């Protein structure tokens, strides 16, 4: 479940998040769904928790609502320890 992306490189401690990419082709905005935790240098993570079958999210960049499933989730590592205002999806 879910895929891994090694993008967004930087320095210092990295943190892993579950994310999706906006489904509007010309948008491509990344939406962060849930903090996984401190990166362990892994390339894959297992989705855990009581997951809904479908997630609905409104993209502020393109203004369109999309539905996502766990198959759309991609893990990504970034430098900041916490994203300001992150509302986890589950």
What does this structure look like?
The chain has one domain (3-42, 53-78). Helix content is 0%, strand content 36%. It has no helices and 6 strands. The protein has strands at residues 3-5, 15-21, 30-38, 55-58, 65-68, 74-78. The chain has a 4-stranded mixed β-sheet, with no helix packed on it. Strands 4-5 form a two-stranded antiparallel sheet.
Secondary-structure map:
Blueprint: E1 3-5, E2 15-21, E3 30-38, E4 55-58, E5 65-68, E6 74-78
Parallel strand pairs: 1-6
Antiparallel strand pairs: 2-3, 2-6, 4-5
Could you name the key traits of this structure?
about 90 residues, two-stranded antiparallel sheet, globular
Describe the structure in brief.
The protein has one domain. Helices cover 0% and strands 36% of the residues. The protein contains no helices and six strands.
Oligomer: single chain
The major sheet is characterized as: 4 strands, mixed
- Shape descriptor reads globular
* H/E element order: EEEEEE
C-alpha-based Rg, rounded: 13 Å
Beta content: 35-45%
Low-confidence parts: 5-10
Instruction: Report how far the terminal alpha carbons are from each other.
Output: 16 Å
Number of domains: 1
Would you count the extended β strands for me? 6
Strand order of the largest sheet: 1-6-2-3
Q: Quote the average pLDDT.
A: 83
Count, helices: 0
Q: Structural class from helices and strands?
A: mainly beta
Helix % is: under 10%
